[in-house]
Every structure is written in C-alpha cells, then in structure tokens.
Amino acid sequence: MKRAFNIRCLHLNSEEDAIEILRRVGVDPYGLTSMLPKMEHLNIHIEALPCRTANIIKQEMLSVGGDAAVSRDSVACAEDVTEVVIMGTVKQLRKFSEKILNQAFGLHTLAETIEEALNNISRKSHELKMSHRKIMVGDRPLLMGIINVTPDSFSDGGQFSSLDDAYRFGCGLVEDGADILDIGGESSRPGAEPVSVQEELRRVIPVVEKIAGAVSVPISVDTCKAEVARQALQSGAEIVNDISAMRYDPGMADVIAQAKAAVVIMHMRGTPRTMQQGELSYGSLRGEILSFLTERCEAATSSGIANEYLIVDPGIGFGKTAEDNLRIIKYLSEFKVLGRPILIGPSRKAFIATITGGPPSKREEGTASAIAAAVLNGANILRVHHVLKMKKVAAMANAILRA
C-alpha cells in the first residue's frame, strides 16, 4: 500500500534536538519558546507514597493535562502506600510543581524535588572542584586511567614490580590521553582480602609523589582508608575514589573536607570480599542505587564537602549480577537527576566475559562496546585500563551523541 503521508516518530534526545526540528518547520521564535517545553516528555517514578498523597498528585496532574499512574486500590485507600509514575511534558510538570508547592502532606517537598530533578537532567555541564583546581565536565567524557600497584588486582595485579615501572606507566597513560590517573594499592576484586594501612601506604604514597610531580592531570587515590587518603592528598592527589562511599572509615569525610578534595561516591553492597556472595537480587535495582547515592551525597555535604566536589558512580560489578550491570549501563541517564558527574568503570570486568568470553586481557572489545553505550547514555568520566583505545571509542560515541 502506498502511503499518503510520509511520517516519522521523532527521537528527541535533548532540547537541542527539539529546537532543530522546530526551526526546520519554521516556527516563529516566540512560538519556539512556548512550544519547546511541550516537546519534552518525562516519566517520574516515586516509590512508596501514601495513597492520599498519590490521589492528590493524580488529580493535579490531570488538571494540567498530564497524568499519574497509581495502584488500582489507591483511590479507595485500600492500601497504605502506592508507587506513582507521573507522566507529562516539562511544561506540565513545572505547572504541577507550582500548584502543589503550598499544599500539605509533604507535597511542597515533592515540588522542590521535581524542580531540582528537571534542572539536573537538563544540565549540560558540571563544575567539578578539587584540591588544586576546578574543571568543567560535560563537553566530552573524561578518561580516568587505572594504575593498580597491587599484586592481586583482577586484570593487572603484579604488573608494576618497581616504583619506576609504575611511574613510567602513569606518564604513558597521560601521553595516551588520560585526563585523570587513579592510583590504588588494595584490590577490590570479588573475594579480595583487605590489606593493612601501612602496607597500602607503602604501595601507594611513593607512586603518588613521583607521578604528581611529573604530570599535569589530576591524580585520584583509590582507597577506603582515611590515613591513606590524607597522606595521598598531601603528596599531590586531588580526588579520593572511595568504593565504600566513606562508610568504612569514620575519619574519611573529615580528611576529604579539610583537603577540599573531590570524592567519588560509589554504590556497593557488602565488601569486596563478600559482595558477590549470596543472593544478589534487588527489589528495584536503579531505585536502590539512586536512593543510596542520594543518601551518601547528603552525608557528604553534611560533613562539609560541598556538592561541587562530588562525583557519583553506580558501581558496575560491585554486588551486582551480569544482567544488573547491563541494565545500569542501558539506563545510566536516570542518574542524571543527582546533578553530579557520572563515573562508570566497566573496563575488563567479569560481566563482559558472560557475553564475549575470555580472561580480562581478552575483554577489550566488550569493554569498548560498554564504554560507547555508557557515553551515549550520559557517562561523564570513564575509568579504564587501556586509555589509548578507549579514548578513541569515547570520542566516536560522543561525536554520535552530539551530531
């Protein structure tokens, strides 16, 4: 059958995409301003709201032309709580938040939260502050090169038998295009045993000192120990990459705050020794990760670490199944609501082997695919082993994203 009309369903990734198509149509500039918010449609999921509150939300959303999905038993308040999915354009959501701003039942807090979320997901760049500088993150993904000065890391343990080897490798990563170097002295592979503070200091501090004096990029220290972080920051590091999100050592937050260092807040259940043992199921994978990261970011700011110093990481491979890791990458853009740069580290991890097979050294193609998908879905910082290859992969994915 011959089509009478040539139609297509628009895939709008950004405000710029919507502006481009409106200009192509020839919309008046004043009309463009009013139409733009109508073209951006969002679905906002809220867990465990009282039914009375959910019913108000549904009615108010209907009044502005949107809708809200609630449990079928919530209208009669036959159950205590319900999940809610608010559906509407950006314009409708902003009208909705204005209408509930002065209402009871905690709706004013919801209004403020929605406004903050709308602002965060539309943000194109982030100012990231650290000990000795500040950088803008957003125009392109940054590459964080991995330097593991450990005998037992899953991919490159024992690679550096001397300080000079680690130094040359770090300088080489910068030459290959690394924007950040991440130096770690304790393996976080599944089943890894912890090391003492003194042993971690012995491994890490000389490497930080030597590399910091030779490169111009920021150095991150991968540690959960406050004393290791403190000495590394004094030796030239500017970022603390703490896989425990500052939970394991009660002194970590104070060390970071006093040094005005940036910190990576990462999600993990359990410890590296136990994280892949037992039942790994989640009631709501992204919901639980988002809730955890929100709480830990709030804990950081309460400890004196300003929001501009925070980086978030959903924790690929840390207490997750292979399918969980794939879903995190697929829906990575959901973490934009946090309003901070998103770091992700899929490099050579075991979930890749479930698809492509092979030991860590044979997972580069799978890593490249994961990196490309992560960039397309909103990743800002990529933690990788092979900087030179992944820099090119990230550049190509970013070019497609911004085409």
Report on this structure.
- By secondary structure, the protein is an alpha/beta fold.
- The chain has two domains: 40-121, 2-Layer Sandwich (Alpha-Beta Plaits), CATH 3.30.70; 126-401, Alpha-Beta Barrel (TIM Barrel).
- The protein is 42% helix and 16% strand.
- The protein contains 14 helices and 13 strands.
- The chain has helices spanning 15-25, 29-39, 51-63, 90-100, 107-121, 163-176, 197-212, 226-234, 252-259, 285-302, 322-330, 350-356, 364-376, 387-401, and strands spanning 41-50, 67-69, 81-89, 126-129, 134-137, 142-148, 180-184, 219-222, 239-242, 262-266, 310-313, 343-344, 381-384.
- The strands form three sheets. It has an eight-stranded parallel β-sheet, covered by helices on one side.
- Strand 7, helix 7 and strand 8 (219-222) form a beta-alpha-beta unit.
- Helix 6 crosses helix 7 and helix 11 (322-330) crosses helix 12.
- The longest helix has 18 residues, at 285-302.
- The mean pLDDT is 91.
